[in-house]
Amino acid sequence: MNLRFLQVTTLFFALAPLSKTFAQSLSALKTEYLVNPIGLDNPSPRFTWQMNDTSQGAKQTAYRILLDTDSASLVKANAKLWNTGWVKSDNNLVIYSGHPLKPFTKYFWRVDIADGGQKKSNKTYIASFETGIMKMQNWQGAWISDTENTQLKPAPYFRKTFTANKKIRSANAYIAAAGLYELSINGKKIGNHRMDPMYTRFDRRTLYVTYDVTNAISQGKNAIGVLLGNGWYNHQSTAVWYFDRAPWRNRPAFCLDLRITYEDGTTETIKSGKEWKTALSPIIFNSIYTAEHYDARLEKAGWNMPNFDDTDWKNVIYRSAPSKNIVAQAMHPIRNVEEIASKSLRKFNDTTYVFDLGRNISGVSKITVSGPAGTVIKLKHGERLYANGHVDISNIDAHYRPTDDTDPFQTDILILNGKREQSFMPHFNYKGFQYVEVSSSAPIELKKENLLGYFMHSDVPVMGDVKSSEPIINKIYYATNNSYLSNLFGYPTDCPQREKNGWTGDAQIAIETGLYGFDGITIYEKWLADHRDEQQPNGVLPSIIPTDGWGYEWGNGPDWTSTIAIIPWNVYLFYGDKKLLADCYENIRRYVNHINETYPTGLTTWGLGDWIPVKSKSPVELTSTCYYYADVVILAKAAKILGKNDDYEKYTALAKKIKDAFNAKYLNKEKGIYHTGTQTEMSVPLYWKIVPEESIALVAENLAKRVEADNFHLDVGLLGTKAILNALSENGYNDIAYKVAAQKTYPSWGWWMENGATTLYENWPIDAKSDISMNHIMFGEIGAWLYKSPGGIKPDETQPGFKHVILDPHIMEGLNSFEASHIGPYGKIVSAWKRINNGIRYDITIPANSTATINLPLTRGMDNYINGKLNNTGKIDLVAGKYVIEHKAGK
């Protein structure tokens, strides 16, 4: 990838102004939720934009989209391929419906809008996208590898030279791989992605990536280099999930088309095939699960340069494609997002050092070191230290099952060549760690500056922020985001060290936290495609996705694999885009039907239950039935949205059946208590709204009493943490929810922070004997709760995508100020409040082309003023704009 891809290249062309008073402009022009993407396969891409207008009541009343291959024609509003004409609509999400798109083509699109006064934009806003391969038959390259020996450990190099005899206009490289790769041209790595392509069920769907390599190719002789890694495709490490026995497993392979367009309009494709040469690289072992080993003595200087002598390199072999479904990777890539300097260094002796990054991350370390040839340096990565200061990985290697001592867990191995100071950073691995213990077979001299950490994750744009007057809340929010990002690698994972698995339960808990904070739609659309790949014909899904086959028999059930319904529904709420809901509709229906057929009473015992509770255990049937109910409610709503009226009626009736059966068994209606009245047993039914309307107030009151009896501390597990704070806040017990959220003693999120946590943990006691990863996202709902309760920002399912914003900020005892912001599809929403001498001041921003409703307190002796005007109606409708609202003592 070159700079052209990374930059926002929206073009501005001056036109004669249509209105001197027209103040609005446009921004965030995206195709398939990406800025000027290349290599798209979707024949009907989605276009989105935002209207920038700070005036009160700003809105879009019409739009026009034009599309062509010639940007100059768009300036003249003369589009040959698509012109919607002026459409009276406030939509800012439009699906392409023009002439069929061709592969390998760059398209430009222009959007114009009219505002509430019917004034049309007086500037031209143009964005672009490029189509990719689009159809399997358009590939020209062959799938090649060096061998089919899955046990061979060194990573292979591949190279080919070619001559470009004419002046080059543009060039794109399209590369698909079974495994991982790094692509280079003329000695330079292409792009700044890590770990491409993203992990999928390789034998059902394989991803390819497109790069603009125009500036990398020279007229004359050129060389292409490809380095292949194992990734999840050829898993040589052994662990409890049996990825070493995956049905797709083979030696890594790739297919590449380098398509060059010359200035004279002709094209040429340099492709993978028999004329390529291969040799083993200095990466003598690579495992995405454990680490990477590198022998610098085996380096082949200039291996990817045009004049390198490859006469002793071997011929490649042909391989069949891993799947018949090679599709574009249209998503935010994994990158080294943040460089982190070592905070401290402890030297034990001249062969042993421990570096501390000061925070827990997912990613890699980079060491710069010199020493005698043959010196073996081991870099052991871990989350904590023994009392003697050495790195302790006993909390994160629990599921590793090594067959010998040649593949130590999270331990990179570097063998020096003795020639000069050299740097090493793994190519095809990442870890979860804060500390790095460096040990060497010969004395070396290291300083703090010799080791850097790189925080790696899917590089999703930040879309939200939270600021609080209470430091512990800020620390919890920071740690939650760190854990969320540490577990985003093209799919959501549970932890970046011990497993790296796509646990469905963790992901459904954290979906709102992720969507409030980050622009994750491209990741979730990819991951739900993984769901569709993995679903069995009877509707069953595995507990980890993707999978090699593990997880269909354990860990799945509606409390975990409700991801198939909950995630598409939340993407719909946050983006106002029903594509994912439509794509997954039949899968949700098949899943619900399977549960209905297996558990015809409406109650289901299928699931893991309230995983890792503090002390109280709740019946699996209680929690799983609530999730089953949630799935059916979502299915019924989706049916209505998608116009499937018969299904809407069918599943609405099924939801009622489940609700009635559940309450008949578990609700003591007279007392207002579910089962034995634990925090989970009370909060989960409230959160998923399975409680009868007439019982909600009493059940909520009893939940509040139970929390008070527990001294305002948590007594929940995974499922309870999703529900507890929301169930309290949504039913009038905001102060109690805040007391729980802001606790600093065990068990609580704050207890972790007080003990130095920079991420969220897997277990409430910090000295637990099992399940003690220190970077898990499964207890991460608190991040979303901060937006929903003290921030009060919620989507409205009747006008999703924050077209209409529900504002219900809760003023909480113990907080002096709070601010939440979220950039939705229409722009930035701000909900801030602070205590003033005689009341509360709110600062609200509603973006252009959207509206909001705010619930304000009505208190005896207090008045509400909106931008200085008295308004005591309580529930107030707001148009776009900025507002200062004061709730203060009346005059």
From TrEMBL:
It comes from the Bacteria. It catalyses: Hydrolysis of terminal non-reducing alpha-L-rhamnose residues in alpha-L-rhamnosides. Pfam families: Bac_rhamnosid (PF05592), Bac_rhamnosid6H (PF17389), Bac_rhamnosid_C (PF17390), Bac_rhamnosid_N (PF08531), Ig_Rha78A_N (PF25788). Keywords: Hydrolase, Signal. It is an enzyme of class 3 (hydrolase). GO terms for molecular function: hydrolase activity. InterPro entries: 6-hairpin_glycosidase_sf, 6hp_glycosidase-like_sf, Alpha_rhamnosid, Bac_rhamnosid6H, Bac_rhamnosid_C, Bac_rhamnosid_N, Galactose-bd-like_sf, Ig-like_fold. Residues 463-788 form the Alpha-L-rhamnosidase six-hairpin glycosidase domain. Residues 166-338 form the Bacterial alpha-L-rhamnosidase N-terminal domain. Residues 1-23 form the signal peptide. Residues 792-861 form the Alpha-L-rhamnosidase C-terminal domain. Its EC number is 3.2.1.40. Gene3D superfamilies: 1.50.10.10, Galactose-binding domain-like, Immunoglobulins, Maltose phosphorylase, domain 3. Residues 347-457 form the Alpha-L-rhamnosidase concanavalin-like domain. The keyword Mitochondrion does not apply. The keyword Transmembrane helix does not apply. This is alpha-L-rhamnosidase.
